[in-house]
Design brief:
The protein is α/β, with parallel strands linked by helices and about 300 residues long. The protein folds into three domains: about 1-90, Winged helix-like DNA-binding domain superfamily/Winged helix DNA-binding domain (Arc Repressor Mutant, subunit A, Orthogonal Bundle), CATH 1.10.10.10; about 95-165 and about 270-295, Periplasmic binding protein-like II (D-Maltodextrin-Binding Protein, domain 2), CATH 3.40.190.10; about 165-265, D-Maltodextrin-Binding Protein, domain 2 (3-Layer(aba) Sandwich). About 40% of the residues lie in helices and about 25% in strands. The protein has twelve helices and 13 strands. It has helices at about 1-5, 10-20, 25-30, 35-50, 65-90, 105-110, 115-120, 140, 175-180, 225-235, 245-255, 285-295; strands at about 55, 60-65, 95-100, 125-130, 145-150, 155-170, 195, 205-210, 210-215, 220-225, 240-245, 260, 270-275. Strands 3, 4, 5, 6, 11, 12 and 13 form a seven-stranded mixed beta sheet that branches. Strands 1-2 form a two-stranded antiparallel ribbon.
């Protein structure tokens, strides 16, 4: 009977709010409670669990290893409870915070411009978008969805394909005046090829030559941390880049960049996927809404 008398979901909700708001006082304001009441509630929770959830050795609360595990599970459980409430009601309405991690080109040029439209359709969904070319761990980063380029690694994640992206080789006219225009794949060995300073699923540059697939690896003379930085290096005449066609289309149209070796381009070969954590076939309404929206509205050409 003891467990039935304990408002375990309420404890979880307060605990999660303390973590996300960074302290007892901020969480207390959200619930109309006093900081001491929130602190006592968390203390009772720790006693019930026989585990310390926070490290209080510094002025800033930090989760212990047990606290991190309990937080991760609590977030999923509370999401399931909210979803159950929605499904039992007459109208299932997407709501709640949606954390999205998206790579630089797709994020800057395809996702962020659509945010106002998504907000109009789903006003109860709070978007938290991180734009980065580094592959994130959805579990560690507490992300709901990640949009990734290239072949997917084997994992427990579920993926939905958003489309395929055509890549182009490009450089600025100033660079080509100084180093010459490469006309054959072999000419690239005498040029500065901008690479990346972190592991990528597709680090090689693929080409089709006489019907055969060939590839080269960019050297280490210039390396950057994301595709937008590579674009800026190219615009300043710092080297040759391989980027999504939609990423540099305006630069090419305005003459700031020139497409190179396009006769050897293998075509739309980079797949873009939205991946998310599978929950026994259950998908929160906010996740489903965002995925469906991206599939319908995101143009990768």
């Amino acid at each position: 009977m003891g467990r039935l008398e304990t408002n375990r979901s309420g404890e979880m909700e307060v605990f999660v709010r303390v973590v996300e708001r960074g302290g007892f006082s901020a969480a207390a304001k959200d619930f109309g409670m006093t900081p001491s009441a929130v602190s006592k509630l968390v203390g009772r929770l720790e006693s019930r669990l026989s585990a310390r959830l926070f490290s209080r050795s510094t002025r800033k609360l930090r989760l212990t290893e047990e606290g991190q595990r309990y937080y991760d599970r609590s977030v999923r459980i509370l999401a399931d409870i909210n979803e159950a409430d929605d499904e039992a009601s007459s109208v299932v309405r997407p709501k709640g915070k949606l954390r999205v991690s998206v790579n630089m080109p797709v994020g800057l040029h395809r996702i962020l411009p659509l945010v106002p439209e998504f907000q109009q359709q789903y006003p109860d969904v709070d978007l938290d978008i991180t734009v980065s070319d580094k592959v994130v761990d959805l579990y560690e980063e507490r992300a709901d969805i990640a949009i990734r380029s290239g072949p997917l690694q084997s994992s427990g994640l579920i993926a939905r394909k958003l489309g395929e992206c055509r890549m182009v080789i490009a450089a600025a006219p100033d660079y080509l005046m100084r180093y010459g225009v490469p006309n054959e794949i072999g000419d690239l060995k005498d040029h500065i090829l901008v690479g990346y300073n972190f592991p990528r699923a597709m680090s090689e540059w693929p080409f089709i030559v006489d019907g055969e697939r060939k590839s080269i690896m960019p050297g280490g003379k210039v390396c950057v941390g994301d595709a937008e930085s590579a674009r800026k290096v190219a615009l300043e005449g710092g080297g040759i880049v391989r980027l999504a066609e939609f990423h540099v289309r305006k630069d090419v149209e305005k003459g700031r960049l020139k497409v190179l070796l396009d006769q050897f381009n293998p075509g739309p070969c980079v797949e873009i996927h939205a991946v998310y954590i599978g929950q026994g076939g259950h998908m929160p309404a906010r996740v489903r809404a965002f995925l469906d929206f991206c599939i319908e509205r995101v143009d990768l050409t």
